[in-house]
Amino acid sequence: MGEFILELKDISKSFSGVEVLHNVDFSLKYGEIHALLGENGAGKSTLVKLITGFHQPNHGEIFLDGEPTTFSDTRDSREVGIAAIYQELSLFPDLDVAENIFIGRQPLTKAGMVDWRKLYSESQELLDSLGVKIDLKQKARNLSIAEQQMVEIARAFSIHARVLIMDEPTSSLTLNEVADLFRLVRNIRNNGTSVIFISHRLEELFEIADRVTVLRDGYYVDTKPITETSREDLIHMMVGRPISDQYPKLEVPKSDVVLSVEGLTCEGSFKEISFELRQGEILGFAGLVGAGRTDVANAIFGIKPISSGSIKLAGTPVAISSPKQAMNLGLAYLPEDRLQHGLVSDMNITTNITLPRMNDFSKFGWVLTTKERKAAYDISCQMELKANSIYQLTRELSGGNQQKVVLGKWLSTNPRILILDEPTRGIDVGTKASVHQLMSELAAEGMAIILISSELPEVLGMSDRIIVMREGYMTGEFSRDEATQEKILTAATEDVRARMGQ
Question: Do the domains 252-330+415-428+443-502 and 4-91+143-239 match in fold?
């Protein structure tokens, strides 16, 4: 037996005559965690789809255990023990844990019925072997993101996975949940499974990976042991240039209050939230996943009804009961989940960008296509969107470019207040830097911005002030000068009830 369980040699792949992978090499050792890096659009997703049989290469060979092989579809790769867990989890919400683990492969009785006793016993054995404690009869919709990840891993191992591909597995996890996931991944590796780990959080790779391969613009750049590289080296390999300033925050003089929130409460989500937002200010919201930050944003934008409290825009009390009303008042909201709530993936770039303003591009029931096309083109240029054309379907874009479409859509409404919920989740360092640059420029032009982010360096680097939440309460507020990671983490993990004397 050789050194590698999986090898891709001289792999090329084209779509509609456009080559997206150019003679790429990739090798995965037995029992290693191998990080796969690259900017959005570098070819990582295409390479993964070749490994899982979703696509077939136009040129090159794939070797498994040293033998050449072909995967005509995903079933072929699954049968030889290759499994993938994607950033957008694919559990069935109304099925329980055990049903999700064996979906489509339920054990049957001799009569052809589902053998429920065997289904639950085998599911329990599987979870026990992975060291995972979850109620097998819990519905998937009631699980946390971290628990859903564990069920996805269990599903992969129910097919006796020898190669496990993990795409952005930590993007929605808390620090403690990441630590739990890493313990599980190391345990999997130590038991002989090889892992391909894709993440834009570079600091994680130095904790979990053995080797790293970098792609850029569809080309293979290099493979190195993780101990022989640095964060700066990886960034340079990914983007072809050093990024000197990932957080280009411009200083903006204090101005008028444009948004005032007083005692805002939504029973079961958050209580007594009060703050002011000034023109040209970037106000950061920090806290662990589930702290209530997104719920506050949803309430301000009219998605979530409030129980009590008040909202004022430029000193005038308003009662916002719908997103349409919020938009008419000059608010825009980039949601946390761009695929579920930010895009219509089967529509093209132009339609997505102009969707909130269709009244501006129609007359007597007819779409003014020339005007619509120009508006979409101008926004695409402003966002430096990488696409074949403004009529390309958004589901065909990389994650970073999808995020640019969502952001461009809301900027096209010329808002006074922009709420950004995890604006750089799942996008590469180069695109992050450009999003941060745009945020800074918008604030300098007078736009007021609320930034919700789970990445502390982003909150610290881009915010004028930072509000910290935990369990639906505000537990801290810091100016840019006084904020530190230690202070924010302390406030984010503070015992709220003890502080309030409950």
Answer: yes
